[in-house]
């Protein structure tokens, strides 16, 4: 049998040979083998995985993938593009961040993208979509937008996209780093099934229990393979000593197995015997603090949430509340269900509290609300006696209005008091050097340069990264970026620190640094709120564990020092919680209305006609006809008019202002008002109204097109319309794909810009509380990190396209065949009649 991968004397450098990410690496992976790559951050695991996946070429050595001689540095051979393309047709790759691996906004279209590039028959593509979505348990989300899903669901869609290509080898780079235990167990179950059916698995991981499933465990340090553990059926479930794992960067686990965790999650809501206490306290060990102890400080209860709290025995803490949340509800714009519903809890000053829960349960959303980066729909939040959000009631009514938010002075006080470490550290860095980035917060506190330098030095030293002070934060590894982001917040010396998954993707040594930091801050009396998926981590650093959403870690076991109370969220909505992402191109239901059923070519042509003819509207009668036409299309598309207007409200406001300017420049007609030398005429008002409204029609038509047409349909339709130009040498297929991907990633880049702005605001930046000039300067400063983010997304997208076997000029099968139907002919006829009507009304 042909070996899956043979790597000989491999060397790889990111800086032209000044240093080596991989140095003289030799590795053979046998067909059907399950191999785990482990090691500290920066040891070369991801680089090696990328080479095995055929997504990068080394500087030197010899690589054979699935029998294809893809790279040989002997002589002048080097990389063999044809062999790389042939090998990748049978290799699947799943990245750590699935968001950059999703190429469209409908799950089935995304899964179909790889088979389309392979030229798979349409009927076979349909069968593979069914099969792969079933394997990852995502059939119910076939027509949903994966860019709006939780991280766990996105990762499963990304895996489904690879499974649909039927790879003989699958490469995964820390696919479970940001997943909760249940989602992690689902991913591992899929890998076990694939391995059982003969698929070769190469898995990069820091998790002990994941590595123990492998046939071989490859340990890497500083770009070298330092140890290989051969596993077999007799010892695969054995326990490796902690000291051995800590030397190689893998995280030891004292938690239950993934299978046990998943079983417990599935049965979490089954009836069980417990005390009659309303807080649902489960079985306690002998070390647990009593429920009525003042240290326990249980969070308050609410009608929709039963707070699940775990108390850990530590020194006596102050009973002064640091964070008080009362009946909090938050719903993302465009969502049909709240991310957080009627949540109440209290965190006391000096406490270290861990927030746990499933992906999509609202943990990161809660962190952002506490830091005043989003505004709740209902409820109140008080942080260090600062009214972050104050619930209000209408007079003589129990109905609540949107909570009142902070004024500028209160917001400045909050930024000096609360520090926020975001989930994605690369979005929190924006200065030219590490030292400047860490100094950003202290400078906003108006400290002198001597004090700023001292704070920067102390923060970097505390995290053992002082050697990075003069480096660009954008050139660092993910683990180093995370440490720098934390240092930038610590330098502000907040009395309350909120940390969202601070140790995700970090090795054992870096994780220990963060835990040491949290314990040091705890001793100094700092209140720490840490969002985490690791029960081990929560046990190691927290005084109390609060679980929201589903009940993770709710069963007490022998030796635990915890007391558990539950907080299930009955209305959890699966949504990306770390950023408030504007609603992207979403088709509300699959082929559920006339507009979505239209052939994309007919739709694009007719909508362009409608948009261009709108500029010819010059009379109220024509405007009325245009409004009737647009209203009919909205009704036929079953779109929510208010939501549609909300999606384009900024453009509408701009055109209204531009239209209003016509009032001051039109001199014809009867003068109604004389403002000094400027006459306001009836013609000026009429033209201003017509100007604003006809542009509004154009913008609304564009929004309808985007909300009823997927990027895949736009790509296919645009490519088909441009196909005659192919004879002139134009790369029409590539132009169409670029347009589609641009539409797909514009919301992502917008979300990144917002995240960077939020990071500046969280450290007291003038983008939020400064003067108009200062805010404009701060917004200008977003350009550098936005540019870095765009390059990062472009690089990841390029890898995703390679992994899905997309190539310029290839013959692609279309999953959605283009056929002109009677409904398309009817819509074109209606559009033609509408144009004739505009002409007739213009002549009257």
Rg of Cα set: 29 Å
Count of helical segments? 28
Let me know the number of strands: 24
Helical content stands at 40-55%
Strand-residue fraction?
15-25%
Mean pLDDT: 78
**Envelope shape:** globular
Major beta sheet, specifics?
6 strands, mixed
CATH topology of the domain at 281-391 and 407-547: Rossmann fold
What's the arrangement of strands in the largest beta sheet? Answer: 7-8-9-3-10-11
Low-confidence stretches: 236-249, 251-307, 313-317, 394-398, 550-590
Q: Could you state the CATH homologous superfamily of the domain at 281-391 and 407-547? A: P-loop containing nucleotide triphosphate hydrolases
The chain-level structural class is: alpha/beta
User: What is the name of the CATH class of the domain at 281-391 and 407-547?
Assistant: Alpha Beta
Distance between the termini: 81 Å
- CATH architecture call of the domain at 281-391 and 407-547: 3-Layer(aba) Sandwich
Subcellular location: Cell membrane; Membrane
Region (Disordered): 296-315
Organism: Bifidobacterium hapali
Domain ABC transporter: 5-247, 323-575
Notes on the protein architecture:
This protein is α/β, with parallel strands linked by helices. The chain has 28 helices and 24 strands. The protein has a 6-stranded mixed beta sheet with strand order 7-8-9-3-10-11, with helices on both faces. A 6-stranded mixed beta sheet has the order 12-22-15-21-20-19, sandwiched between helices. Helix 6 (181-196) packs across helix 9 and helix 18 (600-614) packs across helix 23 (711-722). Residues 236-249, 251-307, 313-317, 394-398 and 550-590 have low confidence and may be disordered.
